Structures are given as C-alpha cells and as structure tokens.
Amino acid sequence: MGTLAICPGSFDPITNGHLDIITRASNIFDNVIVAVFNNQAKSPLFTVEERMRLLKEATKDLPNITIDSSDHLLMDYAKEKNASAVVRGLRAISDFEYEMQITSMNRKLNPEIETIFMMTNNQYSFLSSSMIKEAAKYNGDISGLVPEFVEQALKKKFNFL
C-alpha cells in the first residue's frame, strides 16, 4: 500500500507555490491526496468543483497524486483515508505560528498522523492565492506565478477574456 500523505488547502486558486509543495511531496510519499477544504473564514472565488478541476490539470503529470475534497475535519479525513502524514507549506516565519497552532490541535485530535512542514521555494515565498486574486482582479501580470490555464480561468472570472 505504501505511504499516503494529505496535502490540504483551499487552493483558491492553485499557485506555483502550491504546485511546488505538491510536486515535492509526491517525490517523498508513495501517494498524495491533494484535498480541497472549504475554509469558512474565506469567500472563495472558485467553486470546489472548479478548484478540483484546476488541481487535476495542474497535477496531471504526477501519477501518484489524487484530487479530492472534504467538508470534514482534516484529522477525521486523514484517518478515513488511512494517511500517515499531512503536508503543509510554509512561506515565511509568519506562517509558522498559525501552522503550529493548527498542528497542535490536529495532534490532540489524532496523535497518530504526523504533520510535515515544507519550506516553499524562495521564488514563491511571497505568493498567496489572495494576492494572486487581487492582482488578477485588476488585470495585473500574474504569469509565472500560476499555471497558464489558471491565469486564463482568473481572466475569465474577472471578465478580461
């Protein structure tokens, strides 16, 4: 069966920073589920189905990646999938405190599932989906920051196509 990791996120939309973490996780684990979770604190631009479609396109060349979604607690989902780890990306030191709190809570919920932190590639350390959406909203140049089909999807959302 091999090792299975969950790479959770809202992915609204997927960025090259996300893709960097997902690709690197796919090199470490036998199988990786990239799971779209709905963050109640955020108002998504893309539906869960649209985000899953963009993720499938972005990861189509990674054979050990599965795209899924969930409305459950991450630790319940990970247990249901029989995962051994959760992979989280860190962009900057500011992410660490937030991620540490989440990891502590997750460990309380299920101490059997490890959380693995990966530092994002320096060229993507400033990237966030929120920043991408803000730039795209004003037709800013986001090439090289997201896959080309994501750039097109954003232009369509904001009526620039």
From TrEMBL:
The metabolic or biological pathway listed in the UniProt record of this protein is: Cofactor biosynthesis; coenzyme A biosynthesis; CoA from (R)-pantothenate: step 4/5
Residues of the Cytidyltransferase-like domain: 6-134
Instruction: Tell me its cofactors.
Output: Mg(2+)
Sites binding substrate sit at 10, 42, 74, 88
Gene label? coaD
Q: What is this protein called?
A: Phosphopantetheine adenylyltransferase
- NCBIfam families, from UniProt? coaD_prev_kdtB, cyt_tran_rel
Protein localization: Cytoplasm
An example of a Gene Ontology BP annotation on this entry? coenzyme A biosynthetic process
Q: Which organism is it from?
A: Oceanobacillus bengalensis
- Asked whether the keyword Magnesium is assigned, the reply is yes
Task: Report the EC number(s), separated by commas if there are several.
Answer: 2.7.7.3
Q: Which positions does the site annotation Transition state stabilizer cover?
A: 18
Listed under catalytic activity are:
(R)-4'-phosphopantetheine + ATP + H(+) = 3'-dephospho-CoA + diphosphate
| Purpose of the protein | Reversibly transfers an adenylyl group from ATP to 4'-phosphopantetheine, yielding dephospho-CoA (dPCoA) and pyrophosphate.
- Give the source lineage, highest ranks first: Bacteria, Bacillati, Bacillota, Bacilli, Bacillales
